[in-house]
Design goal:
It is built from eleven helices and nine strands. It is an alpha/beta fold and 297 residues long. It has one domain (14-258): Alpha-Beta Complex (2-enoyl-CoA Hydratase, Chain A, domain 1), CATH 3.90.226.10. The longest helix is centred in the C-terminal third of the chain and has 17 residues, at 222-238.
Length: 297
């Protein structure tokens, strides 16, 4: 059914449903593995505003349709070239360092609403949660994953640093560096052990477990939930979380200008052979690209 609300009207790239005090926002580009383009990001922003404003919503669940939560930013679509409109009157993200910062800060203002709204958000992660997918999930209040979900930011191998960066606040400095400096991914079952996600379950139980968690949270009045969320988030802000987001966008823009061999190779592969070959050549030296925890964890 087409949704028409105060902030969200007739979305094309997401699904929005409210039932039993729970708003369910679903990224809905399964054929693109829910890759984030400008349209989806804008609709997600509006859906979050809608859920935060609705009196009959106490908690929000963010998930992805199809096989994946979100496989990252749509590098082959409009995201790669800004908003897809260039009539010479407005800046795009393809110009200067400051243009790049401006574009990422614009996206960041939309996705950081996950952190800023009053109502709690649970990210339900299955399949791939990569790159931009982690930018969404790690801004949520809780992340619950399938045990076989793949969570990581492989683009740090040649493309940049996460433009939204909550890694240290979830798993600490050493694991944040371990994951970002290799671009390796971690399975949901291991992400629990390092604190990156709240809990993990077999894939066939994920829906039921998240539904039960959302139900329990929804029993608490929204004003109390807002107080709980905001006091914890104020503590994160005192630890610099919001300042780090601004710095992350600027450092990602700087990293885009890097001229090291891996960065040069990726750009050359993109130009000559396209995204699929560029990704293959970027990731092949890292094997399966997964963290394999020792028995000590």
């Amino acid at each position: 059914m087409e949704y028409r609300g105060r902030y969200l009207q007739s979305p094309e790239f997401i699904l929005f449903e409210v039932r039993d005090r729970i708003a369910r926002i679903t990224l809905n580009r399964p054929d693109k593995r829910n890759a984030l383009g400008a349209g989806m990001i804008s609709e997600l922003h509006d859906a979050l505003l809608e859920a935060d404003a609705l009196i009959d919503v106490n908690v929000i669940v963010l998930s992805g349709a199809g096989k994946d939560f979100c496989a990252g930013y749509d590098l082959a679509g409009a995201y790669a070239g800004g908003d897809g409109v260039d009539d010479g009157r407005y800046r795009t993200t393809n110009g200067t360092l400051d243009d790049d910062c401006w574009g990422m800060e614009k996206t960041q203002r939309e996705t950081s609403l996950l952190f800023q709204i009053h109502k709690p958000v649970i990210a339900k992660v299955h399949g791939n949660c990569l790159a931009g997918g982690t930018d969404l999930a790690l801004q949520c209040d809780m992340v619950v994953a399938a045990e076989n979900a793949r969570i990581g930011f492989p683009a740090t191998r040649a493309n940049g640093t996460p433009p939204s960066n909550m890694w240290m606040y979830h798993c600490g400095p050493q694991w944040a560096k371990r994951l970002l400096m290799t671009g390796d991914c971690v399975y949901g079952r291991d992400a629990v052990k390092i604190g990156l996600v709240l809990d993990a379950f077999p894939a066939e139980r994920l829906d039921a477990e998240v539904d039960e968690l959302a139900r329990r949270i929804s029993l608490v009045d929204s004003e109390l939930l807002a107080a709980h969320k905001r006091v914890v988030n104020f503590a994160l802000e005192l630890q610099g979380a919001q300042t780090v987001q601004r710095v992350a966008a600027e450092l990602d823009a700087r990293a885009h200008l890097a001229q090291g061999p891996r960065r040069r190779q990726f750009k050359a592969d993109m130009a000559a052979h396209g995204l699929k070959t560029a990704l293959k050549n970027r990731d092949e030296p890292f094997g399966d690209g997964m963290v394999h925890l020792s028995d000590n964890h």
